[in-house]
Amino acid sequence: MQPKDLVQLAEQFGSPLYVYDAAKIKSQYHRLTAAFSKVERLRINYATKALSNLAILQLLRQIGSNLDTVSIQEVQLGLHAGFQPEQIIYTPNGVSFEEIEAVAQMGVQINIDNLSVLEHFGTKHPSVPVCIRINPHVMAGGNSNISVGHIDSKFGISIHQMPHILRIVENTRMHINGIHMHTGSDILDIEVFLYAAEILFDAAKNFKTLDFLDFGSGFKVPYNKGDIETDIEELGKKLSKRFLAFEKEYGRELTLAFEPGKFLVSEAGFFLAKVNVVKQTTSTVFAGIDSGFNHLIRPMLYGSQHHIENISNPKGKERFYTVVGYICETDTFANNRRIAEINEGDILCFRNAGAYCFSMSSNYNSRYKPAEVLWKDGQGILIRERESFEDLLKNQIMLPLEVATA
């Protein structure tokens, strides 16, 4: 997409605004499948939590993706978007047993990461195929909040508890059809990923009826020009070779599964916001925009960096700005960032805004959530309307007059 296209979309649909480039999502999907082209049975399960808009789910279904979900609501969204139950895997953490049973009744692949839940489910539903999520105790990921395979993580069943797993499976005679792991997000060192994969291969040898091995995801995308990223092609070459060798050793055909979210949609996303004020203080020039961490929380939550461009003045002389939002507390997107000269009314574009951006937005300060637009075949398609005051009132119940005045 060109800056002029984004400016036109901001003028057409207003700001703040999320825009997603369909062509980029498709190219990322095909890049991943090409990297593992030597694996005959490859399954890509898009991580719904990254960006759950129905139109995005429809687009991914159309290009061949399956779905990774973590809640019954995400399962329902997937079914509503046209996915078949067998195309969905459900990997909850800390949810009620009733929710797991409800999802199982939908015909979705269940993935369990808790010994007590595994035993309870296997006792009640031994014939329902179950995948087991293993914690390999491998630290991977760019931030402690998104590293989920280490020893202190709440996710997965410890690899050291394999004897307990096998005892439960033997006692309940439940059907284990998959083994799963996920070490974390923003993985740079593919050797760490391959090391964790060896742990999963060893775990898989304990089960004779597996249909698939799920290696999670966490592939890093570049956040700035020249930034480092996961070498998908190198990982594809090395892991494919090892997987095919294991498949022969195992003695039956297996599916190689991944659960990419950020890798597929992050770079496809643009967040557009209008500059309300330019404020000079004794030491800083603030660019205050018509948004805040209620719409894009990742910089404040994770310290994540989003490249920011002034698409209204792309060739302007660069100056240093601290870009802040309108939320009534510290609300900083970037400190002392070099950006083309900013004037009030300019449109700023935040890149890499496709993953965990709109999906983590809120109504904090009673602000409306932005609209979402899909850029496809040279035109912008509205895929979510901007919220209104009526949306804020929805589901709220005012006190009866006699109670309110008592």
From TrEMBL:
The active site is at 328 (proton donor). It catalyses: meso-2,6-diaminopimelate + H(+) = L-lysine + CO2. Pathway: Amino-acid biosynthesis; L-lysine biosynthesis via DAP pathway; L-lysine from DL-2,6-diaminopimelate: step 1/1. Substrate binds at residues 298, 302, 329, 356. Pyridoxal 5'-phosphate binds at residues 218, 356. One of its GO terms (biological process) is lysine biosynthetic process via diaminopimelate. The keyword Iron does not apply. Keywords: Amino-acid biosynthesis, Decarboxylase, Lyase, Lysine biosynthesis, Pyridoxal phosphate. Residues 23-266 form the Orn/DAP/Arg decarboxylase 2 N-terminal domain. InterPro entries: Ala_racemase/Decarboxylase_C, DAP_deCOOHase_LysA, De-COase2_C, De-COase2_N, De-COase2_pyr-phos_BS, Orn/DAP/Arg_de-COase, PLP-binding_barrel. Homodimer. Belongs to the Orn/Lys/Arg decarboxylase class-II family. LysA subfamily. Specifically catalyzes the decarboxylation of meso-diaminopimelate (meso-DAP) to L-lysine. This is Diaminopimelate decarboxylase. It comes from Flavobacterium psychrotolerans.
